Amino acid sequence: MNQENDNQGEIREICSIITPVYNAGSKILELAQSIKAQTSLRYEWVIVDDGSTDVITLEHLAELRAFATVVVQTNRGPSVARNTGIAHSNGRWLLFLDADDFIAPTKIEEHLKILESVGDLFLTVSDRYVFFGEEQPRIYKLESGFPAVTTDTPKRWLYSMLMETKYVCMVQTSQWVLPRALVRKAGIWSTYKSPNDDGEFFARMVWSSAGIRYVPNASVYYRLEKRGQSWAKSARSNETIAEGGLRSAIAIVDLFRSNGDPDELADLCNRLIVPHVFSNYFSHKKVARIALGYGYTISGFNPASVFQETPYRTISCLFGWRSALRVQRLKVIVYSFFSSRAPTRLSKLAS
Q1: Range of the domain at 17
Q2: Number of folded domains that form the chain
Q3: What sign results for the dihedral spanned by CA atoms 112, 248, 321, 334?
Q4: 7 and 154 part of one domain
Q5: 21 with 159, same domain?
Q6: Tens digits of residue pLDDT in 233-265
Q7: CA-CA distance, 172 to 143, in Å (whole number)?
Q8: 185 CB neighbour count, 10 Å cutoff
Q9: 313 falls in which pLDDT band (50, 70, 90)?
Q10: What is the rounded CA–CA span in Å between residue 67 and residue 41?
Q11: How remote is the C-alpha of 192 from its chain's centroid?
Q12: Whether residue 321 has pLDDT greater than 90
């Protein structure tokens, strides 16, 4: 870990909860209630205000100063804010908790029980519940789709996780509680803007760890209305964010270069890099070229691997993957055109 981003003071046997905040409004109070309800008092809460401008948010942060350490910085994004939180915290263990989520009352207690029984290079992870807006949380169990999360072979688990058909992503940020020592070993948050900054960070943590331990009765309640869709839209319209997403994917694949397994490396490259070729091919040519250039350095790289439907596979085999991609895009444009006109035509018929 960069020494500028670590607290050089005494490390205490507590969990540091680190929350980046940017115009979170009243949602930060829901989080505060869940932290105050913890059955263990072995924690500190460090809130990093990432340049909020919303009056309601600023009022709530002023109220929370009696309960939490509030650090203010200019707007630089959540990853920089999390690094700032690390630098201002004192706990042996770290929990990165977003401002619009909340946690079960026993989360800190249950994680610390397990963390104290294993070494300082083990990660712990919990279940999560998913909910939309103000709705009642609905269950989304980690075991239902992800590989097993109690393991002493974390690199193998990471590969399985990344190759899992349905979930090409990491576990949600707030499910993890990890030792500060592991962050010192693997490095702090990357500070470029990326829609997968958390996936890249925790891939490094898992890769550098001695193992993962599952923690029951420590769930996270994850508000789904927010990050994914906005980040995806930003990546489509903003080349810097699109390039950041590719950098995160490359960083994850690079972890596996040292393993020396060409088939595994090709699988991951086709799984993680090819989508960046396709999603940026028409909108961000530079990003697509970088993805292609990186991919072709890996034996077995195959852009056509993304095509699952028979017609596109056939076109790709006969005329190349670029032709298949153009046909696929044309289909989307035509479908969108007629879908947008359908309501108008129906309304005319009705009148």
Answers
A1: 3-225
A2: 3
A3: positive
A4: yes
A5: yes
A6: 555 678 999 999 999 999 999 999 988 789 999
A7: 14
A8: 15
A9: confident
A10: 12
A11: 14
A12: no
